Write a sequence for this structure.
C-alpha cells in the first residue's frame, strides 16, 4: 500500500482511479474510526452528566420573632436523614428581615422530578408541612434543573 501525506493524496487523486481506491479507503476508515471513538466518548460524557432537581421555597412566617424562626428552621431540618430520596436539605435565615421580605429559604435537592413528587407525599414531609402550614403567612417556590 502506498502511504501518502494529505497533500500527496490530493495531488494523486487527480492522476487516476487506482490511487484513489488504494489510498482513500484506508484513510476514510481511519477517519471514521477516530470519529466513532470521539462520538462514543461524547455519548459517555452525556450519560455521566447527572441531572439534579433543586427546589427553593421562600417562607414568610406569621410571627417573625427570632424564636419562631429558629423553631421553624429546626422543624424543616428535622427531615434530614428521614427521607432517603432527599439528597440534600438546607434552611437559611434571612439576614435582612423586614415586612416585605421572607424569613426562611428552604433548599432541597433530588435526583429527578419523580423523587420530588415522592418527597411531597412522604409521611415525614407531611408532618413537617402540617406544622409549617400553621405558622406560615405566605410562601413562594422555584424549582429548577442543574447538570
Amino acid at each position: 500500500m502506498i502511504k501518502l501525506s494529505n497533500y500527496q493524496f490530493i495531488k494523486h487523486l487527480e492522476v487516476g482511479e487506482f490511487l484513489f481506491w488504494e489510498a482513500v479507503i484506508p484513510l476514510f476508515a481511519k477517519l471514521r474510526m477516530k470519529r466513532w471513538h470521539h462520538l462514543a466518548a461524547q455519548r459517555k460524557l452525556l450519560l455521566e452528566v447527572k441531572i439534579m432537581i433543586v427546589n427553593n421555597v421562600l417562607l414568610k412566617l406569621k410571627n417573625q420573632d427570632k424564636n419562631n424562626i429558629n423553631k421553624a428552621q429546626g422543624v424543616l431540618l428535622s427531615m434530614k436523614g428521614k427521607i432517603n430520596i432527599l439528597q440534600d436539605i438546607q434552611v437559611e435565615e434571612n439576614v435582612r428581615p423586614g415586612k416585605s421580605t421572607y424569613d426562611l429559604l428552604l433548599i432541597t435537592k433530588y435526583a429527578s422530578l419523580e423523587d420530588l413528587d415522592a418527597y411531597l407525599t412522604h409521611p415525614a414531609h407531611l408532618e413537617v408541612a402540617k406544622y409549617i402550614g400553621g405558622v406560615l403567612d405566605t410562601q413562594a417556590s422555584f424549582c429548577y434543573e442543574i447538570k
About this structure: The mean pLDDT is 81. Residues 6-48 form one domain. The longest strand covers residues 136-146. The chain has five helices and four strands.
